[in-house]
Design the sequence.
């Protein structure tokens, strides 16, 4: 026998050795290994009807994936976005055996390693907030709007605080349900000359922390 570490357990027929977690074929002519494979399987799983061996029962030492039906559905979940937004239980529709990023029929994504773990809504990229503050000298108007985008589907909140020379003069707010983005209503006013304006937009939604953006404009 070749290729067997010193002291390794070897099957009775001499074609397999135990590496501590799986049965490995002893380096040998492949057809010989093939002939021995079914015997070794019986031995490894303890299915030897002859009853002449002992110490078998090493279940799980062969790749169980080969035995799974083809095109089985993963069905892990339920999808956290569907649960929150639609109050429905939506399982993963991808083929079983894929990685830990799951997808429901609605197109939501979530992360989950196994059924015992909480499902975490997922986006590719990161949520962002955008503040838009402009002064139009023709109409002598300063106007503010903004939004937040890139969230997992759910309840999205966006808040815009408008400051003039460091004092809050107006707060914009909006809440969007079953959404991945939310936009602020536009607010505008006629500013005093020589004032400094600031617009701070904060977006929040499922799983990820709040995001913020600031714009500043000096009125001549
Ligand atoms: Zn979903
Ligand atoms: Zn899945």
Sequence:
């Amino acid at each position: 026998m070749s290729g067997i570490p010193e002291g390794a357990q070897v099957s009775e027929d001499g074609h397999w050795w135990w590496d501590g977690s799986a049965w490995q074929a002893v380096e040998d002519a492949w057809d010989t290994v093939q002939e021995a494979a079914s015997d070794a399987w019986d031995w490894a799983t303890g299915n030897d009807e002859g009853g002449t061996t002992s110490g078998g029962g090493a279940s799980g030492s062969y790749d169980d994936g080969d035995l799974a039906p083809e095109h089985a559905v993963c069905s892990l979940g339920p999808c956290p976005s569907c649960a929150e937004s639609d109050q429905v239980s939506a399982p993963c529709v991808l083929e079983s055996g894929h990685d830990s990023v799951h997808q429901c029929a609605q197109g939501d994504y979530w992360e989950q390693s196994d059924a015992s773990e909480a499902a975490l809504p997922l986006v590719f990229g990161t949520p962002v907030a955008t503040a838009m503050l402009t002064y139009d000298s023709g109409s002598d108007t300063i106007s503010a709007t903004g939004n937040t985008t890139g969230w997992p589907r759910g309840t999205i909140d966006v808040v815009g605080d408008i400051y003039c020379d460091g004092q809050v003069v107006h707060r914009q707010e909006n809440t969007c349900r079953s959404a991945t983005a939310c936009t602020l209503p536009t607010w505008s006013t006629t500013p005093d000359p020589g004032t400094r304006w600031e617009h701070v937009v904060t977006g929040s939604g499922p799983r990820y922390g709040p995001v913020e953006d600031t714009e500043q404009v000096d009125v001549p």
About this structure: Confidence is low (pLDDT under 50) at residues 28-46, 48-66. The chain has three domains: 9-64, 68-122, 128-218. Residues 5 and 19 are 8 Å apart (CA to CA). Residues 74, 76, 92, 94, 98, 102 surround zinc ion (ligand 2) (CB under 6 Å).
